[in-house]
Amino acid sequence: MNRIWKPNVTVAALIERDGAFLLVEEETDAGIRFNQPAGHLDEGESLVAACAREALEETAWHFTPTALVGIYQWPRPQGDVTYLRFAFAGALGEHEAERPLDAGILRAVWMTPAEIEATRARHRSPLIWQCVQDWQAGRRFPLDLIRHYER
Question: Is the pTM higher than 0.70?
Answer without folding.
Answer: yes
